[in-house]
User: Fold this.
Amino acid sequence: MKKVAVFRKEHFNAAHRLHNPALTDAENARVFGKCNNVHYHGHNYELIVKVVGDIDPITGYVIDMKVLSDIIKIEVLDRFDHKNLNLDVPEFASINPTAENIAVVIYDLLRKQIPSEHSLKITLYETERNFVEYPAE
Amino acid sequence: MKKVAVFRKEHFNAAHRLHNPALTDAENARVFGKCNNVHYHGHNYELIVKVVGDIDPITGYVIDMKVLSDIIKIEVLDRFDHKNLNLDVPEFASINPTAENIAVVIYDLLRKQIPSEHSLKITLYETERNFVEYPAE
Amino acid sequence: MKKVAVFRKEHFNAAHRLHNPALTDAENARVFGKCNNVHYHGHNYELIVKVVGDIDPITGYVIDMKVLSDIIKIEVLDRFDHKNLNLDVPEFASINPTAENIAVVIYDLLRKQIPSEHSLKITLYETERNFVEYPAE
Amino acid sequence: MKKVAVFRKEHFNAAHRLHNPALTDAENARVFGKCNNVHYHGHNYELIVKVVGDIDPITGYVIDMKVLSDIIKIEVLDRFDHKNLNLDVPEFASINPTAENIAVVIYDLLRKQIPSEHSLKITLYETERNFVEYPAE
Amino acid sequence: MKKVAVFRKEHFNAAHRLHNPALTDAENARVFGKCNNVHYHGHNYELIVKVVGDIDPITGYVIDMKVLSDIIKIEVLDRFDHKNLNLDVPEFASINPTAENIAVVIYDLLRKQIPSEHSLKITLYETERNFVEYPAE
Amino acid sequence: MKKVAVFRKEHFNAAHRLHNPALTDAENARVFGKCNNVHYHGHNYELIVKVVGDIDPITGYVIDMKVLSDIIKIEVLDRFDHKNLNLDVPEFASINPTAENIAVVIYDLLRKQIPSEHSLKITLYETERNFVEYPAE
Assistant:
């Protein structure tokens, strides 16, 4: 069978703040700088979901992009878009919402919904100049 | 003289919330929807500053882009970047930080610093799909 | 009042063919070249709708972007997206679907739905390298 | 030797329709939705061709980009650009022109022309939000 | 008649150096900074040519994009692409090749070739963040 | 541990010329065409640096992007930006500055500064349509 990767790009807009409660305020300020602003700042996150699998001989699809888009909407966008990641998304109650950690959380949310025969990778742009990929190649 | 426009693109990342204190909470929720989230959300704002003037025969510049960039940094980026527009930027204490109003505030901040013989226009992208221009052509 | 322009970007994917039935086949082939292919070709059209008006003092908006987006969806996307412009869109039964003419048709469709105190402009990208604007500035 | 990947980006504009003749019309409509429109729709396809090999010590190239671009032009653009994939490209007479299948067809066309010591990968953007890669990493 | 603007985007890669021979070396270094490097630096210039006119009722075009592209190729690309603007392009023997001046030179080259009933505007990107427009709106 | 890749995008503007001194002038002209222009040409190079490693449980970072950006500035931008690669950058005194070779040189410069437990990859865009990656996947 021919393994093909398909990619779906989505986006969400969210507020966040980098902060580790195990550190003092002075340490947080030193480590995270302006990203530690107590009043939060925010980003237009661009999310690319990569799914790898065989081409279905009936449809010519690896996965129906409409189905993939709906899964991303339910699992990620409805929960993250126009939200404060620290306050509104339970996963970040105890995890610092760095781009790295957000990508891992999104992977875990989507992994349960994508058929197990398909491999999955997340790319998350925090800005045009800073982005992350999980799992790393 | 030959009138030329020069453009400088900058960006800042900020949290905000759309809210009019003159309206009830129910009215705010109805008018602003998910943009009214009490915990804020955020954006990567892309800012394009347009300055129109004559070409200086000595430099070949309308305005030195380094000078323009420094003005934008001092007047806008240092005050807006990694901030909560509603809480950290005094101009929005009484003005709802819609893209329209942010563009007007940025225009007023920069207008004082750009030589009066130059005309000025602000384009502000809130997302790739939603953007504004002031003054409108 | 402060005149501000707001812009909303949308897209649609369509097939088309450039052809003037008043010309002979040979003339059509000469004038339109490969764009005259009898079997059609297609594009990802990027549409930017510009609306100019005063900022509403209650909302801080020129026009609610959700309302504008819904108007574009009903008037343009639902009628043009995943369609053959020549065969499926009645306006092009007698008008050659060049980018210029598509922009004029979209303007006429939207003009009826946008409040008359607002001015309107259409920018349409046929490709990243070829685009048009109507009315021209 | 140092293995380097070089990438060349090209594009073509084409009409297509998703349709499996082994399915009934009702099944095709259900599976492919608006992509099944009998009159076709179309896309600006962005194609990225990746070639991996050693750096030639004389030229400093993995492969001359002019040569690679010419191969893509002859094998892909001259056959796909401004065409109807279903009707004008023989490969899709019996293969449904999904992005996945188009990428595999392009790979097979180019594989014969790229020196065998070079590995090859195809990335194909159907829209900015939907794209595929073959072979998958 | 309906005035429509059409835009064609092209690009060229060139070396240049900002230098005014009427200034001393020290003054040039102070005014132009690293852009005054005696060995030159370079850019991928993105050029957008805007032509405004009536839609031709026979073709549906303001101007045939193939014709416009050919004019730009002959007048600009063949003379500027892969060149050193200061040394290889006669217009810059006595004019400092700032983005402002390059735009004016390109306007003057194209103005002679574009029918006089069409208005013309040049946008030139020196980088993604620095660009100019002539004549200014 | 969870391996995550982080990416930082930077850019520099430089002049260069493709030329192999071991070849005759006629051979250089034949092999490198207009890229062999004796007066140089130039590019806006876009550089993406990929670093792979474990997420630090204290910071939530693979590597602090500010630290990574500073390393790139010192090792690459301060030495390449607004320079003539052939004349101003010692590494290219004897190496032809093709995109392939520039990527390898940048990799070698950064590899010494990035902690050894992190893997490293360089992507370098010479133009939007021509780019390279080292080491190749």
Q: What stands out?
A: Chain C has one domain: 3-134. The two ends of chain C are 22 Å apart (CA to CA). Residues 3-134 of chain C form a domain with the Tetrahydropterin Synthase; Chain A fold (CATH 3.30.479.10). The longest helix of chain C spans residues 65-80.
